[in-house]
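[Automated response] Your request has been received and processed.

Submitted sequence:
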Amino acid sequence: MAKGFTVKVEGLKDLEDALKQLPQANAKGVLRRTLKEAGEPIARTARALAPKLDMHLSQSIDVSPKLSSRQTTIRHKESPVEMYIGPGPDPAGHLQEFGTGPGHHAQPFMRPAWDQNKSKALDTIANLTWVEIEKTAARLAKKAAKGK
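Generated structure:
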């Protein structure tokens, strides 16, 4: 079975420091909103590229912080905030992406979607995270000024 891949973005130390200044729950919310927004173009492209023989495959592609219970037993959480992009637990997803052999060749849709959108997704993460941090900090300051 093919394994997923991890993307590591370096050089965002100031961003990390700013996130650490927020309460943990707020920082996680900032990252969830940012990652969801950054993942949507990848999901849209994957839906468009997914084989249309079974419409349920393209319709099941989503951006979510959760995996199915079966997927969770295979994949262990490595970060406090993770976002997954892809089809639901239906095995048709990886069978289409990677193929099953000579009788059914691979029809990749997730990897090409990533390849087409990765630069934009990484830029969105870097830029939108700052916007979300500023909005959250302003909201927290307003709340503190009211004495809550």
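Summary generated for your ticket: Residues 110-145 form the longest helix (36 residues). Residues 13-142 form one domain.
If you did not submit this request, please reply to this message.
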